[in-house]
């Protein structure tokens, strides 16, 4: 898994490639937490994400809660069919804005 961050004036875009699973979720969480400390508006670009496990979903849920507390916005863009289905089946699509 790789995580790249593009910082704009009002938001950060987190580009994730590969797989977010039990082994990579801690690194994903560390990268996300650093962004959440600095930005109220975050976009996750999952164009190159192949898979997200329950460990990754927990990070996403914590991220959404953190953004809600700051009255910011969080959204997921470019999720492939597999990742979008995981969000749908788990009910996360009703919690997180997925475009």
- SS summary, helix count: 3
H/E element sequence: EEHEHEHE
Characterize the quaternary organization of these chains. Answer: single chain
What level of helicity do the residues show?
Answer: 40-55%
For the record, the CATH class is: Alpha Beta
* Proportion of beta-strand residues: 25-35%
Overall number of structural domains: 1
Give the termini distance in whole angstroms: 22 Å
Number of DSSP E strands: 5
- Structural class, by secondary structure, is alpha/beta
CATH topology type: Transcription Regulator spoIIAA
* Side-by-side strand order of the widest sheet: 1-2-3-4-5
Structure summarized in a few sentences:
The chain has helices at residues 25-38, 54-69, 81-90, and strands at residues 2-7, 12-20, 41-52, 73-77, 97-98.
Question: Can you offer a commentary on this structure?
Answer:
- The chain starts with a strand and ends with a strand.
- Helix 3 (81-90) links the parallel strand 4 (73-77) and strand 5.
- It has a five-stranded mixed beta sheet with strand order 1-2-3-4-5.
- 40% of the residues lie in helices and 34% in strands.
- With 99 residues, the chain is of the alpha/beta class.
- The protein has a single domain, classed as STAS domain (Transcription Regulator spoIIAA), CATH 3.30.750.24.
